[in-house]
Design brief:
Blueprint (H helix, E strand, L loop, with lengths): L3 H17 L2 H52 L2 E3 L4 E3 L6 E2 L2 E9 L4 E6 L11 H11 L1 E6 L6 E6 L20 E6 L4 E13 L4 H4 L8 E8 L5 E9 L2
Parallel strand pairs: 5-6, 7-10
Antiparallel strand pairs: 1-2, 3-4, 4-5, 4-8, 6-7, 8-9, 9-11, 10-11
């Protein structure tokens, strides 16, 4: 009985000691979380900086290749005697991608070649891999008819932050004019008569719709800040 107060005192001290023990593990956990967060943030920052540096490099390389391609297109001339174009248009390539036309939108200062994919290139099943490289180089035909034919030629381009490719497509307005020049030197005028948002999954049929009433149309689309929504701009050929 004499030791009871002392035992009770020790018991209270043990309880207080046990209550203090978790402080160290909690501090370690918090430190680990903070360090993990800092490390991840640093990783994301470094990765983003590398992406920007790589994008700048790609953009400069693409500009040179685009300029060379447009110069080749400028040299296309129709031989009045044979009615053939020299140099042969089907042999103008942007890297490995056949050039099929040129699009010029004066209101947003766009002047780019349009490329298509060969049958072999279309066999790449993963759609992101299939279009990754051509989209870095030019505007790409996605679906539909050939340039300036009756029907709907659907083309796509990246919405780059440096405003290259279709980075300024969002600034196009109803009534703006643009031209499409095919590989035989035929330039046709178009006027923008439809601008709409297209859900990536639900609205593709509307984007690629070929029911044009016999008219030649061009539908351009690009990304927006919403990864599921695409901006679509459509124009009709002016007779």
């Amino acid at each position: 009985m004499q030791n009871e107060p002392e035992n009770m005192k020790r018991s209270e001290e043990n309880k207080r000691s046990q209550k203090k023990l978790p402080i160290v593990p909690i501090a370690i956990v918090i430190a680990v979380i903070l360090l993990t967060g800092i490390a991840y943030g640093t990783y994301r920052y470094v990765r983003y900086q590398r992406y920007i540096a790589n994008r700048i490099k790609q953009a400069e390389e693409s500009k040179t290749k685009i300029a060379d391609t447009l110069n080749k297109m400028n040299d296309l001339k129709l031989n009045e005697g044979t009615k053939q174009v020299r140099p042969e248009p089907e042999k103008i390539l942007l890297e490995d991608y056949p050039v099929i036309a040129r699009i010029n939108i004066p209101s947003i200062n766009i002047d780019y070649p349009i490329v298509a994919l060969t049958e072999e290139q279309m066999k790449v099943e993963n759609i992101d891999e299939r279009y990754e490289r051509p989209l870095e180089l030019a505007i790409v035909k996605y679906d539909g008819v050939n340039p300036n034919e009756a029907g709907n030629m659907v083309i796509m381009g990246h919405d780059y932050r440096d405003l290259s490719m279709f980075g300024k497509l969002k600034d196009v307005k109803m009534g703006d004019n643009f031209t499409v020049t095919d590989m035989y030197g035929n330039t046709q005028n178009y006027v923008v008569d439809e601008i709409f948002d297209a859900h990536r999954s639900d609205d593709i049929p509307k984007v690629v719709d070929q029911n044009t009433g016999g008219k030649a149309k061009v539908t351009m689309f690009t990304c927006t800040n919403n990864e599921l929504i695409r901006l679509a701009v459509r124009g009709t050929k002016v007779d």
